């Protein structure tokens, strides 16, 4: 979502194909001593230099990370368009790019063990406490290659998990009808974990008739709240039995909550946070909605509740822009 590129489930311009794996993309291999080079095994998946034994077979860090993400996130890749010959000898010369489906199947074929990837978590016991061979730690080479690629792989995994949590938040039953000012949202604690507290919204997809009825209810609630000056009482996650959202408002909130998870954003002065948020949030919520609709193979914007948006945002969407961002 905000400030980042999608890290999983995305299709590149070449339909989900991977660049050739490389365990030395950031460093000059000449920096490694001859004796160390002599001990480098070959990655059983892609044929590049391995960086140790990963998930029971010699593998480079690229293939190791690819296999771990595929297993942990249960990713389903599209079928191969090239008769499942991506890793054939003939294909190596004419098609250096490999589809992800074939790459995952090759990981299984060479003996990578899925259970090792599933059991290897941050809260796993110390190495000395491991009792079975399936739980042995990866054998890493003491070289700068492993350090650099482990660092990059860790960032990718964190961004992927953040995207999953943000998508859960967008589809959750947390549904405030009033959003505080921008300063209030930025100063408040993070809300993405509310997705786990409230759970998924029920009753989706909704019908157009139900959507119209709920919009009337939302307008009435807001009118009553403005007249009774009880805005403070309606900023909670209570949804009043409503299972649709005002998506312009909620997606802006989601984009801001996403940004708040980044350490560099929290280190900015308050005024810089406000300026950066105003300059980027609307663009990023538009990209989020477009991306989600693209994954659903829709030619128009489709919200998680099943309603397609094709017209103006509406009265209260415009008022939200004014109240939160100070623009109309």
From TrEMBL:
Record key words, sorted: DNA-binding, Metal-binding, Nucleus, Receptor, Transcription, Transcription regulation, Zinc, Zinc-finger
Recorded GO MF terms: DNA-binding transcription factor activity; sequence-specific DNA binding; zinc ion binding
Annotated stretches, region: Disordered: 121-142
Top-level taxon: Eukaryota
Segments forming domain NR LBD: 217-328
Keyword Glycosyltransferase: no
Record PROSITE patterns: NR_LBD (PS51843), NUCLEAR_REC_DBD_1 (PS00031), NUCLEAR_REC_DBD_2 (PS51030)
Pfam family, one: Hormone_recep
Keyword Transcription regulation: yes
Domain Nuclear receptor: 40-119
InterPro entries recorded: NHR-like_dom_sf, Nucl_hrmn_rcpt_lig-bd, Nuclear_hormone_rcpt_NR2, Znf_hrmn_rcpt, Znf_NHR/GATA
Sequence similarity: Belongs to the nuclear hormone receptor family.
Identification of the protein by name: Nuclear receptor domain-containing protein
Organism annotation: Caenorhabditis remanei
């Amino acid at each position: 979502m905000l400030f980042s590129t999608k890290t999983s489930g995305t299709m590149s311009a070449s339909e989900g194909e991977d660049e050739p794996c490389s365990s030395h993309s950031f460093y000059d291999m000449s920096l490694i001593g001859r004796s160390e080079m002599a001990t480098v095994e070959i990655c059983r998946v892609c044929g590049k230099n391995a960086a140790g034994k990963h998930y029971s077979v010699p593998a480079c860090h690229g293939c190791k990370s690819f296999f771990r993400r595929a297993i942990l996130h249960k990713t389903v890749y599209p079928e191969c368009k090239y008769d499942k010959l991506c890793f054939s000898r003939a294909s190596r010369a004419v098609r250096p790019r490999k589809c992800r489906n074939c790459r995952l199947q090759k990981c299984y074929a060479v003996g990578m063990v899925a259970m090792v990837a599933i059991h290897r978590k941050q809260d796993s016991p110390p190495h000395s406490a491991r009792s079975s061979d399936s739980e042995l730690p990866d054998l890493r080479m003491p070289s700068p290659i492993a350090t650099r690629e482990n660092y990059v792989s860790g960032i990718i995994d964190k961004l992927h998990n953040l995207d999953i949590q943000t998508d859960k938040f967008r589809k959750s039953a947390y549904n405030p009808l009033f959003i505080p000012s921008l300063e209030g949202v930025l100063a408040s604690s993070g809300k993405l974990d509310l997705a786990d507290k409230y759970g998924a919204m029920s009753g989706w997809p909704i019908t157009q008739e139900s959507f119209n009825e709920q919009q009337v209810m939302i307008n009435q609630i807001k009118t009553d709240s403005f007249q009774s000056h009880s805005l403070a009482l309606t900023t909670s996650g209570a949804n009043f039995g409503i299972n649709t959202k005002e998506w312009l408002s909620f997606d802006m909130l989601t984009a801001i909550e996403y940004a708040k998870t980044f350490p560099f954003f929290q280190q900015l002065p308050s005024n810089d946070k406000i300026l950066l948020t105003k300059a980027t949030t609307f663009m990023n919520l538009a990209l989020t909605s477009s991306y989600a609709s693209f994954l659903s193979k829709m030619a128009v914007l489709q919200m998680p509740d099943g309603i397609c948006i094709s017209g103006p945002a509406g009265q209260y969407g415009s008022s939200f822009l004014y109240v939160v961002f100070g623009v109309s």
